[in-house]
Write a structure and sequence with these properties.
Number of strands: 0
Oligomer: single chain
Distance between the termini: 20 Å
Number of domains: 1
């Protein structure tokens, strides 16, 4: 619960900083830096990575996790899957309330019907990054559960490092494709981290 409180307060505080446009200079500098790294040959890989953090794929992962917990006999723990819609709801709420347009020049993102629907609904603001929220929550939660439940072996040992690598790659992907400012990425990571902390707190509640 301590990490949930810390990350929630950090997200709220950082959101105020973004709302005050205090991150604008760093946003532009980061955007220019990654624009200088751009190579068309890297675009397909960036788009594939984006799909792995998209709504469609992460929904399948969270449902798969819930099924895994159910079959393993952790019936009450299955409710941890509700952290996903809760985090997405907060993300969409902030995108509607906070005036923070995304970069004007960017490359094609990974194909996602849900993102197209959001654009059609008039959600033009980019804070926080939904891909970061989902990636931190879903891959972090998967890694935590696998690390706790798998027998000792490579799967258990690699769960946490692979999740950390995935989160780092997604952050770089958002900036490399130019679809988000660095402030969007940080905000998304904080919100996703808060959701992950809440989910872990639920899983660790003692049950008789």
């Amino acid at each position: 619960m301590l990490f949930l409180a810390i990350l929630s307060l950090a997200f709220l505080a950082y959101t105020q900083i973004v709302a005050a446009s205090a991150t604008s200079i760093l946003d532009v500098r980061a955007a220019h830096f990654f624009a200088g790294l751009w190579n068309p040959a890297g675009e397909p890989a960036g788009q594939v990575l984006a799909v792995l953090g998209g709504v469609e794929f992460t929904v399948l992962l969270i449902l798969g996790l819930a099924l895994y917990l159910w079959r393993a006999g952790f019936r009450a723990e299955v409710w941890v899957a509700l952290a996903y819609p809760a985090a997405v709801l907060i993300e969409v709420l902030y995108k509607r309330l906070l005036d923070h347009p995304g970069p004007f020049i960017h490359h094609a993102d990974g194909p996602s019907p849900s993102d197209m629907a959001a654009s059609g609904a008039g959600i033009a603001n980019s804070y926080p990054s939904g891909h970061m929220v989902r990636t931190v929550l879903v891959y972090g939660l998967l890694a935590f559960v696998l690390h706790r439940l798998l027998p000792d072996g490579w799967g258990r040992r690699l769960a946490l490092p692979l999740a950390a690598v995935m989160i780092a790659l997604m952050a770089l992907d958002r900036l490399y494709l130019g679809v988000h400012w660095q402030s969007d990425v940080i905000g998304g990571a904080l919100l996703g981290g808060a959701a992950l902390a809440g989910a872990i707190a639920w899983l660790e509640v003692p049950r008789g």
